C-alpha cells in the first residue's frame, strides 16, 4: 500500500449513465455541496435568533450563559476537531485504496462522536436536574437557586437563552447522530474493501458532512459557552 | 466509440472540453497534522480569551477566531483549497445568502425601534425579568388564580384601558405604552393630552387621537356572548399629570387604570 492508486477507467461501482468515473464522483460531490449549503442556511436561522435575542437582551444572555460548563464545551470542541482530523485521514486512506487504515480512522471518528454525545448527555442531565428544561418546562425558582449556589444570578428571562441553547445544541446533536449512522455505513463498506481503484466518493461525501457538523460546533461553542 | 474518445463528453456530436470531473488531491499526513495543531491552538486561544475581560470586544474576537478555524477546516479538511471552484461557489453562495438574511433582519430590528419612537409608542419588552413574566403568565395559566365564575361567565382578561405614562414624554403629548400582557392585546384610540392634562387639538381644532392600548393583567368574570364588563367605550384617560407622577414612582406595569364607565 501507500502507493498512489491511479484511478482506473472503470471501477467496480462505475455507473453506466456517467461518461467517466471522474464525472460520477464530481456529480456526487456537487450534490453533497448543495446539501451542505442548505445545512448552512438551516443553522443560520438559529444563529440569527441567537444574535437577535442577544441584541435585545444582552444581560439576560450573559447572565444565563454562566451556567454552561466551559470546560465540558472545550472538551467537546477538542473531541470534534480530532474527529474531523481522523475523518480527513479516512478520506485520504480511501483515496489511496487502503481500506484497512480507512476503517481504523473511521472507527476513531465514531469513538469521538460517541464521546461528544456522552459529554452532551452529562451536560443535559446536569441542567435537567436543576430545573433547566427547554421552553415552558423551565423551573425558574429551582434554576435561580442553582445559579445562586454557583455565585451567579439570572437577569431577565433565562429560559429564552436556555431554549436557544437546547434547540441549537439539540439540532447539532441530531446531526452528530446522523453522522454516526453514515460513518457506520462507510465503515462497513471499508471493511468489505469497496474503496479502491479511485472509488472513494462515499467516504469523501460523508467526510464533507462530518466537517460541516464540526463547522457548526466551531461557532456554537464560543457563542453559547464562552462569549461574555 | 474510439479509444481516444472514452473520456469525453459529447454535446450534439461535438466533444465538450470541460465537463464536471472530480480531480483528486491527496494531501500529506503532515499537512493534516499541522492543521489539527493550528485548530487546537485557536481553541485554546478562545478559551483563554473568554477569561480575559474584553468587554464589548469579546464577541468580535471570538467570531474572528471561529472564522479562522472554520476557514482551516473548509480549506484543508474539506479540500476546498484544491477542489473544483464550483464547490467554493456553492459554499460561498450559501454564506452570501446568510449575510443577506442577517443584514436585512438586523436592519429591520434597528429601524423598527426608531419607527416606534416616531409614533411615540413604546413597545416595551418584559424587561422586568421573571417576575414580570410570571405575573403575565400566572393569571391565565394558574388555575388557582382564576376567579370562580357562574351564570355563564368565564374568567377572562378584564381589559381596562389606561394611559400609561412612561419615563419620557415626547413633544408635549403623553408617552403611551402599549403592552401585551395576559395574552390580551388591546389597541384603542384615545384623546391625547399634554403635560397639564389638557386635551390636545390640531390646528383645525380637532382633538388629537392617539393609539393607546394598555392592558392590565386583571382577571374578571366576563360573559363571553355579550362581553359585558369587557368592552367598554374608550374611557377618558386618567388625570394624566397625577398618573405621570405615579408612573414614575411605581413600577411601570402598575400604572393606574382609567376608571371604567358604568354600564
Task: Briefly summarize what is shown.
The complex is a heterodimer of chains A (228) and B (263). By secondary structure, chain A is mainly alpha-helical.
Folded structure, characterized:
The complex is a heterodimer of chains A (228) and B (263). The N terminus of chain A is likely disordered. Chain A has a single domain, classed as Up-down Bundle (Four Helix Bundle (Hemerythrin (Met), subunit A)), CATH 1.20.120.80. Chain A starts with 20 loop residues before the first helix and ends with a helix. By secondary structure, chain A is mostly helical. In chain A, 44% of the residues are buried. Helices cover 75% and strands 0% of the residues of chain A. Chain B is an alpha+beta fold and 263 residues long. Helix content of chain B is 37%, strand content 11%. Chain B has five helices and eight strands, in the order ββαααβαβββββα. In chain B, strands 1-2 form a two-stranded antiparallel sheet. The relative contact order of chain B is 0.10. The N terminus and C terminus of chain B are likely disordered.
Amino acid at each position: 500500500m501507500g502507493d498512489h492508486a491511479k484511478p482506473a477507467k472503470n471501477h467496480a461501482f462505475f455507473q453506466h449513465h456517467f461518461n467517466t468515473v471522474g464525472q460520477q464522483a464530481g456529480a456526487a460531490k456537487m450534490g453533497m455541496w448543495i446539501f451542505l449549503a442548505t445545512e448552512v442556511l438551516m443553522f443560520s436561522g438559529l444563529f440569527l435568533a441567537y444574535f437577535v435575542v442577544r441584541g435585545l437582551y444582552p444581560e439576560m444572555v450573559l447572565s444565563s450563559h454562566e451556567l454552561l460548563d466551559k470546560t465540558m464545551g472545550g472538551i467537546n470542541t477538542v473531541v470534534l476537531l480530532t474527529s474531523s482530523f481522523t475523518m480527513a485521514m479516512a478520506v485520504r486512506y480511501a483515496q489511496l485504496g487502503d481500506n484497512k487504515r480507512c476503517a481504523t480512522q473511521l472507527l476513531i471518528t465514531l469513538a469521538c462522536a460517541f464521546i461528544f454525545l456522552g459529554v452532551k448527555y452529562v451536560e443535559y442531565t446536569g441542567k435537567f436536574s436543576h430545573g433547566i428544561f427547554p421552553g415552558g418546562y423551565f423551573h425558574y425558582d429551582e434554576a435561580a437557586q442553582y445559579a445562586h449556589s454557583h455565585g451567579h444570578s439570572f437577569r431577565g428571562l433565562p429560559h429564552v437563552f436556555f431554549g436557544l441553547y437546547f434547540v441549537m445544541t439539540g439540532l447539532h446533536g441530531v446531526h452528530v447522530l446522523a453522522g454516526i449512522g453514515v460513518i457506520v455505513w462507510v465503515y462497513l463498506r471499508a471493511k468489505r474493501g469497496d474503496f479502491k481503484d479511485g472509488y472513494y466518493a462515499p467516504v469523501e461525501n460523508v467526510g464533507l458532512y462530518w466537517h460541516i457538523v464540526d463547522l457548526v460546533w466551531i461557532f456554537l461553542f464560543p457563542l453559547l459557552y464562552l462569549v461574555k | 466509440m474510439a479509444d481516444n474518445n472514452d473520456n469525453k463528453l459529447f454535446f450534439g456530436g461535438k466533444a465538450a472540453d470541460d465537463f464536471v470531473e472530480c480531480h483528486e488531491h491527496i494531501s500529506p499526513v503532515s499537512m493534516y497534522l499541522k492543521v489539527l495543531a493550528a485548530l487546537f491552538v485557536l481553541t485554546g486561544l478562545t478559551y483563554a480569551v473568554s477569561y480575559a475581560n474584553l468587554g464589548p470586544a469579546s464577541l468580535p474576537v471570538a467570531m474572528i477566531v471561529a472564522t479562522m478555524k472554520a476557514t482551516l477546516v473548509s480549506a484543508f479538511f474539506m479540500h476546498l483549497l484544491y477542489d473544483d471552484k464550483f464547490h467554493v461557489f456553492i459554499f460561498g453562495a450559501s454564506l452570501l445568502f446568510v449575510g443577506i438574511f442577517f443584514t436585512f433582519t438586523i436592519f429591520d430590528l434597528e429601524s423598527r425601534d426608531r419607527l416606534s419612537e416616531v409614533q411615540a409608542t413604546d413597545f416595551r419588552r418584559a424587561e422586568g425579568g421573571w417576575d414580570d413574566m410570571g405575573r403575565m403568565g400566572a393569571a391565565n395559566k394558574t388555575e388557582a388564580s382564576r376567579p370562580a365564575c357562574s351564570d355563564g361567565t368565564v374568567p377572562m382578561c378584564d381589559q381596562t384601558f389606561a394611559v400609561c405614562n412612561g419615563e419620557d414624554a415626547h413633544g408635549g403629548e403623553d408617552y403611551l405604552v402599549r403592552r401585551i400582557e395576559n395574552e390580551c392585546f388591546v389597541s384603542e384610540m384615545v384623546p391625547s393630552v399634554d403635560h397639564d392634562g389638557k386635551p390636545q387639538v390640531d390646528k383645525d381644532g380637532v382633538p388629537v387621537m392617539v393609539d393607546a392600548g394598555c392592558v392590565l393583567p386583571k382577571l374578571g368574570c366576563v360573559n363571553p356572548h355579550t362581553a359585558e364588563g369587557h368592552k367598554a367605550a374608550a374611557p377618558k384617560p386618567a388625570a394624566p399629570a397625577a398618573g405621570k407622577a405615579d408612573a414614575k414612582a411605581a413600577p411601570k406595569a402598575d400604572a393606574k387604570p382609567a376608571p371604567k364607565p358604568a354600564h
